[in-house]
Each structure stands twice: as C-alpha cells, then as structure tokens.
Amino acid sequence: MKSELEIIVEDLQKISAYTNDTLDHVDDADWFRQPADGINHIAWQVGHIAIAQYGLCLKRVRGFSSDDDQLFPVSEYAKLFGKGSQPNPDPEVYPAPEAIRKSLKAIQQQVIEETSQLSQETLDEAIDPVHPMFSTKGEALRFAPKHEMLHVGQIAMLRRLFGHESLR
Predict the structure, then answer these.
(1) Residue 166's Cα: distance from chain center in Å?
(2) In a domain, 149, yes or no
(3) Would you say residue 89 lies in a domain?
(4) Distances, alpha carbon 66 to alpha carbons 72, 77, 81, 95, in Å
(5) CA R_g for the chain
(6) Which segments constitute the DinB-like domain (predicted)?
C-alpha cells in the first residue's frame, strides 16, 4: 500500500505530465487570445498554475526561500497571475510563452523534488492561515493537482474555442 506522501508525489507527477502534454499542443499564437474581454488567456492560465503551485506546495509548506526567485520571478508572477489578477490582452505585459512554460516546469520540478523529501509529520502540520479548502500542509499538497487540473481544463476549452481538435 502506498503512503500518503507517495500518492501526493505520484499525483503531482501525473498532473505535471498532463499539463505539459496539453501545452505541447498549444500554438504560441494562441497564448494571448481571448474569446471575449476579461476571459483569461492561456498565458494567464499557465502563469497562474506556476504561481499557485509555488504558493500551495512550496511557500505554504516550507515558507519563502531566497532561492525561490531563481526558479522564477515570484513577485512579478504574483502580480501578473496571482489571485485577483486580471488578464491583459497586451502580450507585451507578460513574459513570452516559452519563458512562462520554463517557469512552470521549474516549479513543477522543484515541487516534486521537495515534496518527495517530506515526512508524515510535516504533512500533518497546520497551515496558518487556514484556507477554505485545506488546513494542513498535506491537504494543501493534495489540493494542488486538483487546482492545476481545473486550469488545464480551461486551457483545453480555450483550444477548442480557437478551433483546435480535442486532445483526449
């Protein structure tokens, strides 16, 4: 029987692979397209996944590290893609699609690496402040792939709205 930690890491690995496979089928020309004003574009979705994974799996679990800005520009991503941010139709406001993907992959890799080394005691530790969806570090880590999948679904929907075939 797998441990809670093994299940969490496996889920993080699976959703990372699924996300990246989906993004392999997104044309760069579609990254900043919006089907209507105010609707998040693919660039926002991917940047949001990156900053959310950072917040859920790294910052909430072990706190901020001075090395985090080497993974990606944390404060810039929080402003552009964090909770409450609004999509801007001007691509010049954002990093290029390849830079956003690079940031996402760096976060995914770091999350899996650090999560793999956690103890059950760490998973059981309370998070302060408590979130409406979770109250422990383990619950935050279990929520992260669900949150990522929600946004990958939105990316898939945007692809379809832009006239592309379904991937699955």
Answers:
(1) 22
(2) yes
(3) yes
(4) 11, 16, 20, 22
(5) 16
(6) 17-155
